[in-house]
Design a protein that fits this description.
The protein is of the alpha+beta class. The chain has 2 domains: about 1-115, Probable inorganic polyphosphate/atp-NAD kinase, domain 1 (Rossmann fold), CATH 3.40.50; about 115-295, Sandwich (Tumour Suppressor Smad4), CATH 2.60.200.40. The chain is about 25% helix and about 35% strand. A hairpin with a 2-residue loop joins strand 8 and strand 9.
Protein backbone atom coordinates (compact mmCIF):
# COMPACT_ATOMS: atom_id res chain seq x y z
CA UNK A 1 0.00 0.00 0.00
CA UNK A 2 0.98 3.61 -0.51
CA UNK A 3 1.09 5.69 2.68
CA UNK A 4 1.86 9.36 3.33
CA UNK A 5 3.32 10.13 6.77
CA UNK A 6 3.08 13.74 7.98
CA UNK A 7 4.84 14.88 11.12
CA UNK A 8 5.06 18.22 12.89
CA UNK A 9 8.75 18.62 13.84
CA UNK A 10 7.79 21.00 16.66
CA UNK A 11 5.34 18.60 18.30
CA UNK A 12 6.27 16.72 21.44
CA UNK A 13 9.71 18.37 21.66
CA UNK A 14 11.14 16.10 19.00
CA UNK A 15 8.95 13.09 19.70
CA UNK A 16 7.02 13.54 16.46
CA UNK A 17 10.17 13.41 14.35
CA UNK A 18 11.41 10.28 16.11
CA UNK A 19 8.01 8.63 15.89
CA UNK A 20 7.76 9.47 12.19
CA UNK A 21 11.08 7.74 11.53
CA UNK A 22 9.94 4.65 13.45
CA UNK A 23 6.58 4.61 11.66
CA UNK A 24 8.15 4.92 8.21
CA UNK A 25 10.55 2.11 9.03
CA UNK A 26 7.75 -0.15 10.33
CA UNK A 27 5.63 0.46 7.22
CA UNK A 28 8.52 -0.12 4.84
CA UNK A 29 9.44 -3.35 6.61
CA UNK A 30 5.94 -4.56 5.78
CA UNK A 31 6.50 -3.69 2.11
CA UNK A 32 4.47 -0.47 1.97
CA UNK A 33 5.57 2.50 -0.15
CA UNK A 34 5.93 5.53 2.13
CA UNK A 35 6.25 9.26 1.46
CA UNK A 36 7.33 11.24 4.53
CA UNK A 37 6.64 14.99 4.84
CA UNK A 38 7.10 17.61 7.55
CA UNK A 39 3.82 19.40 8.30
CA UNK A 40 4.12 23.11 7.65
CA UNK A 41 7.57 22.68 6.12
CA UNK A 42 8.81 23.70 2.70
CA UNK A 43 7.53 20.48 1.10
CA UNK A 44 3.79 20.64 0.50
CA UNK A 45 1.25 17.92 -0.12
CA UNK A 46 0.95 17.02 -3.80
CA UNK A 47 -2.78 16.32 -4.09
CA UNK A 48 -2.33 14.30 -7.28
CA UNK A 49 0.17 12.04 -5.50
CA UNK A 50 -2.01 11.90 -2.42
CA UNK A 51 -4.96 10.65 -4.46
CA UNK A 52 -3.00 7.45 -5.12
CA UNK A 53 -2.37 6.87 -1.40
CA UNK A 54 -4.30 4.44 0.77
CA UNK A 55 -3.79 6.37 4.02
CA UNK A 56 -2.35 9.52 5.57
CA UNK A 57 -0.76 9.18 9.01
CA UNK A 58 -0.56 12.51 10.86
CA UNK A 59 1.99 12.59 13.68
CA UNK A 60 1.54 15.68 15.83
CA UNK A 61 -1.11 17.48 17.83
CA UNK A 62 -4.70 18.35 16.97
CA UNK A 63 -3.51 21.36 14.97
CA UNK A 64 -1.59 19.04 12.68
CA UNK A 65 -4.77 17.06 12.00
CA UNK A 66 -6.58 20.26 11.04
CA UNK A 67 -3.68 21.11 8.69
CA UNK A 68 -4.17 17.82 6.84
CA UNK A 69 -7.97 17.59 6.94
CA UNK A 70 -8.81 19.55 3.78
CA UNK A 71 -6.43 17.44 1.68
CA UNK A 72 -8.07 14.24 2.96
CA UNK A 73 -11.53 15.67 2.29
CA UNK A 74 -10.58 16.64 -1.27
CA UNK A 75 -8.83 13.40 -2.18
CA UNK A 76 -10.85 10.92 -0.13
CA UNK A 77 -7.70 9.46 1.46
CA UNK A 78 -8.44 8.40 5.07
CA UNK A 79 -6.57 10.05 7.94
CA UNK A 80 -5.03 8.45 11.03
CA UNK A 81 -3.80 10.54 13.97
CA UNK A 82 -0.75 9.48 15.98
CA UNK A 83 -0.92 12.07 18.76
CA UNK A 84 2.19 13.79 20.11
CA UNK A 85 0.56 17.04 21.25
CA UNK A 86 -0.63 18.10 24.70
CA UNK A 87 -4.17 16.74 24.42
CA UNK A 88 -4.51 14.71 21.17
CA UNK A 89 -8.29 14.93 21.33
CA UNK A 90 -8.87 13.68 17.80
CA UNK A 91 -6.86 10.52 18.45
CA UNK A 92 -8.68 10.03 21.77
CA UNK A 93 -12.04 10.29 20.04
CA UNK A 94 -11.25 7.15 18.03
CA UNK A 95 -8.90 5.33 20.41
CA UNK A 96 -5.95 5.74 18.04
CA UNK A 97 -2.53 4.62 19.29
CA UNK A 98 0.73 6.25 18.26
CA UNK A 99 2.68 2.99 18.42
CA UNK A 100 4.05 2.07 14.95
CA UNK A 101 2.78 -1.51 15.19
CA UNK A 102 -0.78 -0.21 15.76
CA UNK A 103 -0.44 2.26 12.90
CA UNK A 104 0.66 -0.51 10.54
CA UNK A 105 -2.31 -2.66 11.59
CA UNK A 106 -4.73 0.21 10.93
CA UNK A 107 -3.24 0.88 7.49
CA UNK A 108 -3.50 -2.76 6.52
CA UNK A 109 -7.01 -3.27 7.94
CA UNK A 110 -8.43 -0.23 6.05
CA UNK A 111 -11.47 0.17 8.32
CA UNK A 112 -12.71 3.63 7.26
CA UNK A 113 -15.49 5.79 8.67
CA UNK A 114 -16.60 9.30 7.71
CA UNK A 115 -17.10 12.15 10.18
CA UNK A 116 -18.41 15.70 10.18
CA UNK A 117 -16.29 18.82 9.75
CA UNK A 118 -17.35 22.32 10.78
CA UNK A 119 -16.46 25.47 8.82
CA UNK A 120 -15.76 28.84 10.40
CA UNK A 121 -16.42 32.07 8.52
CA UNK A 122 -16.17 35.75 9.36
CA UNK A 123 -13.48 37.69 11.16
CA UNK A 124 -13.75 41.15 9.65
CA UNK A 125 -17.47 41.18 10.33
CA UNK A 126 -19.84 38.37 9.54
CA UNK A 127 -20.04 39.32 5.88
CA UNK A 128 -16.28 39.64 5.40
CA UNK A 129 -14.36 37.29 3.16
CA UNK A 130 -11.48 36.95 5.58
CA UNK A 131 -11.38 34.57 8.52
CA UNK A 132 -10.69 30.86 8.53
CA UNK A 133 -13.01 29.74 5.77
CA UNK A 134 -12.32 26.35 4.19
CA UNK A 135 -8.56 26.57 4.81
CA UNK A 136 -8.91 25.77 8.51
CA UNK A 137 -11.74 23.38 9.36
CA UNK A 138 -13.01 22.89 12.88
CA UNK A 139 -12.86 19.20 13.78
CA UNK A 140 -13.48 19.24 17.53
CA UNK A 141 -14.75 22.46 19.11
CA UNK A 142 -14.57 26.22 19.28
CA UNK A 143 -15.05 28.52 22.23
CA UNK A 144 -14.97 32.00 23.67
CA UNK A 145 -14.31 33.01 27.24
CA UNK A 146 -11.54 32.27 29.72
CA UNK A 147 -10.33 29.11 27.95
CA UNK A 148 -9.90 31.04 24.72
CA UNK A 149 -8.17 33.79 26.70
CA UNK A 150 -5.63 31.33 28.10
CA UNK A 151 -4.94 29.88 24.65
CA UNK A 152 -4.46 33.36 23.20
CA UNK A 153 -1.96 34.23 25.95
CA UNK A 154 -0.05 30.98 25.34
CA UNK A 155 0.06 31.65 21.58
CA UNK A 156 1.34 35.19 22.06
CA UNK A 157 4.19 34.00 24.28
CA UNK A 158 5.04 30.85 22.33
CA UNK A 159 8.54 30.58 20.86
CA UNK A 160 8.97 26.79 20.73
CA UNK A 161 7.22 23.49 21.46
CA UNK A 162 5.29 23.69 24.72
CA UNK A 163 4.04 21.38 27.45
CA UNK A 164 1.36 21.74 30.09
CA UNK A 165 3.65 23.84 32.33
CA UNK A 166 3.58 26.60 29.71
CA UNK A 167 -0.07 27.18 30.64
CA UNK A 168 0.55 28.03 34.30
CA UNK A 169 1.37 31.73 33.90
CA UNK A 170 -1.34 32.35 31.24
CA UNK A 171 -3.91 30.70 33.51
CA UNK A 172 -2.89 32.99 36.40
CA UNK A 173 -3.06 36.07 34.16
CA UNK A 174 -6.43 35.02 32.81
CA UNK A 175 -7.68 34.56 36.37
CA UNK A 176 -6.68 38.13 37.22
CA UNK A 177 -7.85 39.70 33.95
CA UNK A 178 -10.51 37.41 32.44
CA UNK A 179 -11.38 37.51 28.73
CA UNK A 180 -15.12 37.34 29.34
CA UNK A 181 -17.20 39.44 26.94
CA UNK A 182 -20.96 39.72 26.33
CA UNK A 183 -22.03 37.54 23.38
CA UNK A 184 -25.15 36.94 21.36
CA UNK A 185 -25.61 33.46 19.92
CA UNK A 186 -28.18 32.13 17.47
CA UNK A 187 -28.55 28.49 16.42
CA UNK A 188 -30.35 27.87 13.13
CA UNK A 189 -31.74 31.39 13.41
CA UNK A 190 -33.08 30.97 16.96
CA UNK A 191 -31.63 33.09 19.78
CA UNK A 192 -29.95 31.01 22.50
CA UNK A 193 -27.88 33.71 24.23
CA UNK A 194 -28.65 37.43 24.09
CA UNK A 195 -25.99 39.86 25.25
CA UNK A 196 -24.81 37.67 28.13
CA UNK A 197 -21.37 36.97 29.63
CA UNK A 198 -19.89 33.51 30.09
CA UNK A 199 -18.17 30.51 28.56
CA UNK A 200 -19.38 29.50 25.10
CA UNK A 201 -18.54 26.10 23.62
CA UNK A 202 -19.52 25.04 20.10
CA UNK A 203 -18.75 21.35 19.77
CA UNK A 204 -18.47 18.88 16.91
CA UNK A 205 -17.04 16.26 19.30
CA UNK A 206 -17.48 15.69 23.04
CA UNK A 207 -13.71 15.85 23.59
CA UNK A 208 -12.27 18.82 25.50
CA UNK A 209 -9.04 19.61 27.32
CA UNK A 210 -8.26 17.59 30.49
CA UNK A 211 -11.51 15.63 29.98
CA UNK A 212 -13.75 18.53 31.02
CA UNK A 213 -16.07 17.74 28.06
CA UNK A 214 -18.75 20.42 28.64
CA UNK A 215 -20.64 19.22 25.54
CA UNK A 216 -20.51 15.56 26.54
CA UNK A 217 -23.49 14.59 24.35
CA UNK A 218 -21.92 15.88 21.12
CA UNK A 219 -21.18 13.40 18.35
CA UNK A 220 -18.70 13.81 15.52
CA UNK A 221 -20.91 11.97 13.03
CA UNK A 222 -24.45 13.23 13.67
CA UNK A 223 -24.45 16.19 11.27
CA UNK A 224 -25.04 18.67 14.12
CA UNK A 225 -23.18 21.18 16.27
CA UNK A 226 -23.75 21.16 20.04
CA UNK A 227 -23.79 24.57 21.74
CA UNK A 228 -23.22 25.00 25.47
CA UNK A 229 -23.30 28.37 27.24
CA UNK A 230 -22.16 28.62 30.86
CA UNK A 231 -23.04 32.06 32.25
CA UNK A 232 -20.26 33.57 34.37
CA UNK A 233 -19.16 37.11 34.99
CA UNK A 234 -15.84 36.22 36.64
CA UNK A 235 -12.92 33.85 36.07
CA UNK A 236 -13.86 32.04 39.30
CA UNK A 237 -17.37 31.43 38.02
CA UNK A 238 -16.00 30.19 34.71
CA UNK A 239 -13.60 27.81 36.49
CA UNK A 240 -16.43 26.46 38.63
CA UNK A 241 -18.48 25.70 35.53
CA UNK A 242 -15.60 23.87 33.87
CA UNK A 243 -14.95 21.98 37.09
CA UNK A 244 -18.61 20.96 37.19
CA UNK A 245 -18.27 19.79 33.59
CA UNK A 246 -15.26 17.70 34.59
CA UNK A 247 -17.35 16.10 37.35
CA UNK A 248 -20.28 15.57 34.93
CA UNK A 249 -22.68 17.61 37.08
CA UNK A 250 -22.95 20.83 35.04
CA UNK A 251 -26.31 19.79 33.59
CA UNK A 252 -27.84 19.95 37.09
CA UNK A 253 -27.73 23.75 37.04
CA UNK A 254 -30.65 25.46 35.33
CA UNK A 255 -28.70 28.48 34.15
CA UNK A 256 -26.70 26.31 31.74
CA UNK A 257 -28.02 26.77 28.20
CA UNK A 258 -27.73 24.23 25.41
CA UNK A 259 -28.83 23.96 21.79
CA UNK A 260 -28.15 21.81 18.75
CA UNK A 261 -28.21 22.74 15.07
CA UNK A 262 -26.39 23.00 11.76
CA UNK A 263 -25.45 26.69 11.90
CA UNK A 264 -24.23 28.83 14.82
CA UNK A 265 -23.78 32.59 14.63
CA UNK A 266 -21.85 34.48 17.32
CA UNK A 267 -21.67 38.26 17.64
CA UNK A 268 -20.17 40.59 20.23
CA UNK A 269 -22.47 43.51 21.06
CA UNK A 270 -19.50 45.33 22.59
CA UNK A 271 -15.78 44.48 22.52
CA UNK A 272 -14.78 41.26 20.68
CA UNK A 273 -13.28 38.48 22.77
CA UNK A 274 -10.68 35.82 21.90
CA UNK A 275 -11.73 32.64 20.12
CA UNK A 276 -10.11 29.22 20.20
CA UNK A 277 -10.67 26.58 17.53
CA UNK A 278 -9.51 23.02 18.21
CA UNK A 279 -7.29 24.36 20.99
CA UNK A 280 -5.58 26.96 18.77
CA UNK A 281 -5.94 30.74 18.96
CA UNK A 282 -8.11 31.94 16.05
CA UNK A 283 -6.23 35.19 15.51
CA UNK A 284 -8.18 36.09 12.34
CA UNK A 285 -11.53 36.16 14.14
CA UNK A 286 -11.12 39.70 15.41
CA UNK A 287 -14.17 41.38 13.89
CA UNK A 288 -17.82 41.69 14.83
CA UNK A 289 -18.44 37.95 15.01
CA UNK A 290 -18.32 34.66 13.16
CA UNK A 291 -20.48 31.81 11.93
CA UNK A 292 -19.90 28.05 12.10
CA UNK A 293 -21.67 25.58 9.85
CA UNK A 294 -21.40 21.80 9.59
CA UNK A 295 -20.42 19.60 6.63
CA UNK A 296 -21.75 16.13 7.44
CA UNK A 297 -19.64 13.05 6.75
CA UNK A 298 -16.97 14.69 4.62
CA UNK A 299 -13.76 13.56 6.35
CA UNK A 300 -12.59 9.94 5.88
CA UNK A 301 -10.95 8.57 9.01
CA UNK A 302 -8.89 5.38 9.31
CA UNK A 303 -9.98 3.52 12.42
CA UNK A 304 -7.57 1.55 14.63
Amino acid sequence: MRVVVHHNPNSGRGLARTLAERTVRALEERGHAVKSLAVGGAERVDLDRLRDAHAVVVIGGDGSVAYQANASIETGVPLYHAGTGNENLFAREFGMSREPVSIVKAVEKQDVTRVDVARVGGGSGLDGASGLGRANPMLLMAGTGCDAGVIKRVAEGRTRAIGHLAYVEPVIREGLFPSLRPVTVTVDGQAVVEHDVGQLIIANSPRYAVEMNPACDARIDDGLLDVVFLPAGTSVGSALWLGASRLRIADRFGSRRTARGTSVRVTWPEEPGPVQIDGEHAHTLNGDGFEITIDPGVLPVLLP
